[in-house]
Amino acid sequence: MTKDIAINGDSAIALAWKQINPDVCAAYPITPQTIMVEKFAEYVANGEVSTEFVCVESEHSALTLCTTSSSAGARTFTATASQGLAYMWEMMPIAAAMRVPLIMAVANRAVSGPIDIHNDHGDVMSARDCGWVSLFAENVQEAYDISIMAPRIAEHHDVQLPTLVNIDGFILTHAIERITPLDTDVIKKFVGEFKPLYPLLDVKHPISHNLLDGPPFYFPHKYQSVLGMNNALKVTKEVFAEFEKISGRRYNLVEEYKCEDADCIAIVLGSSFGTMKEAIDQLRGEGKKVGVAMPRLFRPWPIAELAKLMKGKKTVIVMDKHLSIGAYGPMFPEVVAAALENESMPKMYNYIYGLGGVDTMVSDFVSVFKDTESGKAKRVNYLGVKE
Predict the structure, then answer these.
(1) Cα dist. 3→101, 172, 178, 180, 187 in Å?
(2) Fewer CB within a 10 Å sphere, N or C end of the chain?
(3) Is the CB of residue 108 less than 8 Å from the CB of residue 168?
């Protein structure tokens, strides 16, 4: 390993990209992703990578170019946030259906309107059903590590699906933290060479991609993506285990903190996992048997791991940083569905929090546990909003 460095989340992802040295990167800058592509563009301009960097005229063009590039047989990366991801949306299910294993970092940011540039999970949740593998980072070290593991997962021949690396906007993208990077030679050996399946430029074996499907073929082809997603569960576990051998850092499909003996647990995504740990420590100091967990892998949804986590629990609190207006938070019904795998159900509560980047403090998370314990909590709650 190299020496520890101080770096922000965007630059950490750009560093991982530099060490991997992809064939193609096409991107359009948008806050808070801009540093990521600017830094990587510097590496390209300085000749530190051999990547073909294309500064396109829009995010839609970026994903279109990346989809065709990956389809042609090039290891391809891109990045975006918020409205940029919204502008890409037309191409997202197409990329998944074409089974192109491109990598996209998403600096998670609220989706307009009203206009807001701060963090929540509105962008990635709006794209959750597009057929992409989706991973979440808690901190800058994890953003770097996941960026290294993502191509191994996406490019595995049993998966072959585009993959999202989610990093909370500003909270992680612009926060400078200490990380321990890996040697470039170690990363290159770990990631390996890109071995595309059925690339368009393999002229000895001509094929066509993304043709018109009639009803008899559309559904079976969609189901192939389901099989790829199912395979991603096993492949991700294997990649996590291999990464631990070269880094000493362990990753799980669902990360747990003091959940084993807990009666009440919370489930969160992203950087809130770290804040919630402090709330857990405070409550543990008061004798409360509480814990917190984070699905590292959001797609495919780790049903078995979550069911095991919730087995025997009295209360489960699902913290959603996005709102499906007219229903629940997007993660809540999926957690409930996972709990149905067990013989008995815990009490389930949904908290919507942090929309548009509103600060959620340790004291706020402490209050969530106390409200559910006292009976003040409703099925769906809006933390910090007067109802």
Answers:
(1) 31, 21, 10, 6, 15
(2) C
(3) yes
pLDDT of residue 1: 57
Structure tokens at 36: 């990521």
DSSP for 231-260?
Answer: HHHHHHHHHHHHHHHHHS----SEEEES-T
- Confirm if 57 and 27 have CB atoms less than 8 A apart: no
Q: What residues of the chain score a pLDDT lower than 70?
A: 1
CA angle 190, 205, 200 (to 5 degrees): 60
138's CB contacts (< 8 A; 6+ apart) are 255, 270, 271, 273, 274, 294
For position 387, what pLDDT does the model report? 72
3-state percent breakdown (helix, strand, coil) of the chain, nearest 5? 40, 20, 40
Strands in 52-55's sheet, in edge-to-edge order, are: 52-55, 24-27, 76-80, 103-108, 163-168, 133-136, 297-299
Find, among 281, 279, 286, the residue nearest to 317 by Cα. 279
Of the chain, the percentage scoring pLDDT greater than 90 comes to 97
The number of helices, as runs of H, and strands, as runs of E, in the chain is: 13, 15
Contacts of 255 (CB under 8 A, 6+ apart): 138, 273, 293, 294, 295, 296
